[in-house]
Please model this.
Amino acid sequence: MKFDSPLIRGTLIKRYKRFLADITLENGEQITAHTPNTGSMKGCSEPGSTVWLRDTKNPDRKYPLSWEMVEATPNMLVGINTHLSNTLVAEAIENGIVSELQGYDLIRREVKYGEENSRIDLLLFDEKQKGENKPNCYVEVKNVTLVEGETALFPDAVTKRGSKHLRELQGMVKQGKRAVIFYCIQRNDVREFQPADDIDPEYGQLLREAINNGVEALAYTAKISPQGIDLVKHVPVTCP
Model:
């Protein structure tokens, strides 16, 4: 995924009220930007960090600049925009990067499903069937930014919604469908993914239960630059 215009560099003053961040631009101007991330952004919102913003060019927005990435550690860029995750995963599937999810010829987004009034992020179809009885594949995408050592962790805050999605995916497996929880790691400095049990033990327990009941868990890291973001590498999901 390529950004349609050059990103704007700045320095983070503070993030607050979840969706707002005060930032000093390189020309010295101080602005308030929209923060497209509902999580705690632990490790990615330290004052003084170098950040990159996208100009939405939307005159109707109160805060037209959107915070897209941060240099969380020296030379390590992290994408913080959770709204990009579905697009990144869909593009990686279409480009053949995600080998585990090939063989489908149609992707639909935000399709209603389940018993708890949910919408699946990506629904993969094989309309041609090619002589096989291939079940539809339900893919729930989670954006990951939190890292400890070389381990990516999710969630970075308690997530009742995330737990609901794991229950819904198990329901799809019971109906004979294929179900996948996909961790889109918007950074490239990790070797594995684990649930953040210290932050949300219920989610970790449900993830293990879901895997045991047939839900597939995938995790991919991303190559990130101010020009664009692409998923590039599979890392194992481990649940010790």
Summary: Helices lie at 85-94, 160-174, 201-212.
